[in-house]
């Protein structure tokens, strides 16, 4: 069985309908366990005090915001190369989720930054590239809304997505590229020495799983809605033509 | 039950508050949009089906009658 079979809307609807209840249940469990563990049962950091608890929402939301754009990039490339409608609709469906996660990351970062850095905002490479990524999300959604023909909209937004990917990568690796600014390095790493302390690590990992699950669940629901909306448009167009 | 958040209570609670509010809004909007589209599609599909059935009913008797007539 090939992966491309699921580019068929009927097969996608059948598979996603079967997966959705499990995705939603797993997401709810991971979010509740991760956030409750992090908020209620972890100690304060010796330097950051209780603000360290913001890590359980800031890091997962930032990760989802960046990786959502990369998922949109893959879906856009699939659309441009293979012309599968479901992939274009999945990219469209993902954008509002990514934009919301970017706002959460920016807002919680500002709230965390104020007591720790003494400022809500700095034109630091990572923060700036993240803000630009948010503007790209807005532009991407505006472009989908502005173009009437869905195929043309999919093509234009795919190109925009490819351009915006530069900022998705920059917001992830800005610290490596410029090695300056207020923002600290990655909280999680494959190198155990660079990770946060174990007491914060496990609840953070579960919270990340919860946010990723939330992204997948919402993406499935929204893509199913887009597939239905496309069929609705097709039927209405057929009726108009008589 | 509530942990002692010390002097940063406002910051921590507002960060969680903003996050939960935005996620809740996103989930509700997603579900509302999904329900609306599903309802609209069901109505249009039903109308479409009814129209197709009507056309079939109109054309079928004629097809049946043709051999007898001939």
TrEMBL record, chain A:
Q: Which InterPro entries match?
A: Cyt_c_assembly, Cyt_c_biogenesis_CcmC, Cyt_c_biogenesis_CcsA/CcmC
What keywords are assigned to this protein? Cell inner membrane, Cell membrane, Cytochrome c-type biogenesis, Membrane, Transmembrane, Transmembrane helix, Transport
Q: Which residues cross the membrane?
A: 12-40, 55-81, 93-115, 127-147, 159-179, 199-221
Q: What is its main location?
A: membrane
Acyltransferase found in the keyword field: no
On whether Nucleotidyltransferase is a keyword of this UniProt record, the answer is no
Checking PANTHER family in the record gives: CYTOCHROME B_B6 PROTEIN-RELATED (PTHR30071:SF1), HEME EXPORTER PROTEIN C (PTHR30071)
Instruction: Quote the protein name from its UniProt record.
Output: Heme exporter protein C
Q: Corresponding gene?
A: ccmC
Automatic annotation (TrEMBL), chain B:
CC terms in the record's Gene Ontology section: plasma membrane
* Stored Pfam families: CcmD
Give GO BP annotations, semicolon-separated. Answer: cytochrome complex assembly; heme transport
- Region (Disordered) residue spans: 44-70
Keyword hit for Cell membrane: yes
Its transmembrane ranges are 12-31
Provide this UniProt record's keywords sorted from A to Z. Cell inner membrane, Cell membrane, Cytochrome c-type biogenesis, Membrane, Transmembrane, Transmembrane helix, Transport
* Membrane topology, as annotated: Single-pass membrane protein
From the Swiss-Prot or TrEMBL record, state where the protein is found.
Cell inner membrane
Q: What does this gene product do?
A: Required for the export of heme to the periplasm for the biogenesis of c-type cytochromes.
Against NCBIfam families, the record matches this protein to: cytochro_ccmD
- Family recorded in the similarity comment: Belongs to the CcmD/CycX/HelD family.
What is this protein called in UniProt? Heme exporter protein D
Give the species this sequence originates from: Tropicimonas isoalkanivorans
């Amino acid at each position: 069985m090939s992966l491309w079979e699921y580019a068929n809307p009927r097969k996608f609807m059948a598979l996603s309908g079967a997966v959705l209840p499990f995705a939603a249940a797993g997401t709810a469990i991971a979010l509740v366990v991760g956030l409750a563990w992090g908020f209620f049962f972890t100690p304060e950091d010796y330097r950051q005090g209780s603000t360290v608890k913001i890590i359980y929402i800031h890091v997962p939301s930032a990760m989802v915001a960046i990786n959502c754009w990369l998922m949109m990039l893959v879906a856009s490339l699939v659309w441009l190369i293979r012309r599968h409608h479901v992939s274009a609709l999945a990219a469209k469906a993902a954008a509002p989720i990514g934009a919301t996660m970017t706002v959460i990351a920016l807002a919680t970062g500002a709230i965390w930054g104020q007591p720790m850095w003494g400022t809500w905002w700095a034109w630091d490479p990572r923060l700036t590239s993240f803000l630009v990524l948010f503007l790209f999300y807005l532009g991407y959604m505006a472009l989908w809304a502005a173009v009437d023909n869905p195929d043309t909209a999919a093509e234009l937004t795919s190109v925009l997505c490819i351009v915006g990917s530069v900022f998705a990568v920059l917001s992830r690796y800005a610290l490596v590229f410029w090695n300056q600014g207020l923002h600290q390095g990655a909280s999680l790493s494959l190198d155990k020495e660079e990770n946060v302390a174990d007491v914060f690590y496990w609840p953070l990992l579960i919270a990340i799983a919860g946010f990723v699950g939330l992204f997948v669940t919402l993406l499935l629901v929204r893509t199913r809605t887009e597939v239905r909306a496309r069929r609705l448009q097709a039927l209405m167009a057929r009726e108009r033509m008589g | 039950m509530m942990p002692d958040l010390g002097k940063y209570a406002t910051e921590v609670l507002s960060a969680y508050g903003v996050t939960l509010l935005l996620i809740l809004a996103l989930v509700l909007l997603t579900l509302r949009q999904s329900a609306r589209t599903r309802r609209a599609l069901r109505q249009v599909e039903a109308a479409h089906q009814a129209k197709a059935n009507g056309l079939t009913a109109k054309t079928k008797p004629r097809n049946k009658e043709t051999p007898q007539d001939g």
